[in-house]
């Protein structure tokens, strides 16, 4: 009996040795470990860590060394900045969006960045609302980028923004925010809504969340009678709900289509052995087991197919959403620049005409020109955020002693700053509603303009858009005591204007005399890269202010 048993043991030993030899031929770790450092966007890092752990257990061998993959999480924008500065230490990068890569590639430092080598997952960028509040959106907001713009447009005071508060992700820090911005901008331009887009961007710049976690949590916080609506990736919504919050969030898919986060792989290492390890790990990311891990975490596969967790019962649409055309690198770079310029602070001095003609009535309105202009100023100033620096001068003739045609009403400074116990914003509103026309005053515009333009040039702030706003009834310069003539003030502006430190003139006129002075108004504004408008009614002023903001995007080359 012992002989057969001994033979069986010997056979088992021989088979074990053979298996060991065969196994180690493909998994030879005799040379130690070969480190592969992976950095990934925070949303996909947990899934990649699971995949990496399985990969490490399988003992993948490169040149007699077992690959040891470690995964660190880092915001894609931060990794991009490190790469641009030449300080990145990772071998293998999984960003959350090719859009970010395109933006980086347009910079001098980004030109040397290796090309991405395909995507490993996808997650469409969608609108989001608390499940309990989603039904209240019916009739006030359809799931679309166009509706979102209308609701966020600061100048559309009677639009859906009365019932909806739109929240956004900072596109300079968050790829889903950048994708939403590009999707909204593209559909707005298709629909001819450029001014509405500017108004929406200005409003959204004050409603930013740093990341999806903060934004989705805020959707469940009551905001008076307004329903909060935000933007996020589909996967972020799934991850939020997976934590079983008291108030889950649902995805609202834009009817025009959307852009998706596509999680591109970029191999950064140049070391030969590590390059082999990176290629091997990249291949492992496309296996069925890796794909299942990603889908189970709420991601779609790279072709847009959803896994079993994205169900209608959980507030998702399993079908692949319609895709908007992917913007090219130039479009992405322009939008990033647009956002940056629009969100530069505002520094503005308003010159308010209080000459005698301002006391005349405006037919059909029940207001004097002074009241109408003051209402225009109040409407316009209401479009600017609290960190804007604003001031007002009144002008006519002999306003502060003989020969001086202007008087400082409120000095330029932050709207949120207190002046003798009163916020500047409140002080401006009070002064604008109580200011009176000077019955015997003429219109010393040119002398005032020279003094104001000199002051704004001297106190120029590099981090702000510096603007001189003129509100008048359009009578032009009427100074019987002399002063600067029209040709001289134009020459002064042309000589003083510096495109590297631009102070632009925005001129808005309201009244029957405005049309006759339009040529000179245009000349004054154009000399500084600005614009002149004639308002036919009070409501038009919102559009004029937005058009003035639009010029920030092209300044100082708007007309050339």
From TrEMBL:
PROSITE patterns: VWFA (PS50234)
SUPFAM superfamilies: Periplasmic binding protein-like II, vWA-like
Highest taxon, organism lineage: Bacteria
Positions of the VWFA domain: 347-549
Gene3D superfamilies linked: Periplasmic binding protein-like II, von Willebrand factor, type A domain
Record protein name field: VWA domain-containing protein
């Amino acid at each position: 009996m012992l002989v057969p048993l001994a033979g069986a043991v010997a056979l088992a030993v021989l088979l074990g040795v053979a298996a060991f030899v065969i196994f180690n031929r493909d998994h030879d770790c005799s040379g130690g470990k070969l480190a592969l450092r992976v950095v990934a966007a925070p949303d996909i890092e947990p899934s990649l860590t699971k995949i990496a752990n399985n990969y490490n257990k399988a003992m993948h061998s490169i040149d007699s060394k077992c690959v040891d993959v470690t995964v660190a999480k880092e915001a894609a924008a931060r990794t991009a900045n490190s790469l641009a500065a030449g300080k990145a230490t990772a071998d293998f990068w999984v960003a959350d969006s090719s859009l970010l890569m395109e933006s980086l590639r347009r910079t001098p430092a980004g030109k040397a960045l290796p090309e991405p080598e395909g995507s490993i997952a996808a997650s469409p960028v969608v609108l989001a609302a608390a499940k309990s509040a989603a039904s209240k959106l019916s009739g006030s907001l359809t799931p679309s980028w166009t509706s979102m713009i209308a609701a966020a447009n600061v100048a559309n005071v009677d639009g859906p923004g009365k019932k909806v508060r739109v929240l956004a992700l900072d596109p300079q820090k968050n790829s889903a925010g950048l994708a939403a911005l590009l999707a909204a901008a593209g559909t707005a331009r298709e629909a001819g809504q450029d001014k509405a887009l500017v108004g929406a961007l200005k409003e959204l710049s004050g409603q930013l969340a740093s990341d999806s976690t903060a934004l989705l949590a805020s959707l469940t916080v009551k905001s008076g009678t307004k329903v909060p609506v935000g933007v996020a990736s589909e996967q972020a919504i799934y991850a939020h709900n997976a934590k079983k919050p008291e108030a889950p969030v649902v995805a609202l898919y834009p009817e025009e289509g959307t852009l998706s986060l596509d999680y591109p792989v970029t191999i950064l290492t140049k070391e030969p052995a590590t390059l082999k390890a990176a290629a091997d790990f990249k291949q492992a990311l496309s296996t069925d087991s890796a794909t299942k891990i990603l889908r189970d975490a709420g991601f779609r596969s790279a072709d847009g197919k959803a896994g079993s967790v994205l169900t209608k019962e959980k507030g998702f649409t399993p079908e692949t959403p319609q895709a908007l055309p992917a913007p090219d690198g130039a479009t992405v770079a322009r939008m990033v620049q647009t956002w940056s310029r629009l969100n530069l602070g505002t520094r503005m001095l308003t010159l308010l005409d209080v000459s005698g003609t301002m006391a005349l009535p405006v037919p059909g309105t029940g207001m004097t020109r002074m009241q109408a202009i003051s209402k225009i100023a109040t409407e316009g100033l209401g479009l600017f955020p609290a960190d804007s620096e604003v001031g007002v001068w009144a002008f006519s003739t002999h306003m502060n002693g003989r020969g001086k045609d202007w008087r400082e009403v409120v000095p330029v400074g932050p709207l949120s700053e207190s002046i003798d116990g009163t916020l500047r914003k409140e002080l401006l509103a009070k002064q604008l509603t109580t200011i009176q026309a000077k019955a015997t005053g003429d219109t010393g515009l040119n002398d005032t303009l020279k003094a104001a333009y000199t002051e704004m040039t001297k106190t120029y702030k590099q981090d702000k858009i510096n603007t001189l706003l003129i509100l008048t009834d359009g009578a032009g310069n009427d100074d019987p005591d002399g002063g600067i003539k029209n040709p001289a003030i134009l020459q002064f502006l042309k000589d003083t204007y510096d495109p590297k430190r631009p102070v632009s003139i925005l001129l808005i006129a309201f009244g029957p005399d405005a049309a006759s002075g339009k040529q000179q108004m245009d000349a004054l504004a154009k000399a500084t890269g600005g614009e002149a408008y004639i308002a036919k009614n009070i409501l038009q002023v919102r559009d004029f202010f937005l058009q003035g903001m639009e010029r920030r995007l092209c300044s100082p080359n708007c007309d050339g």
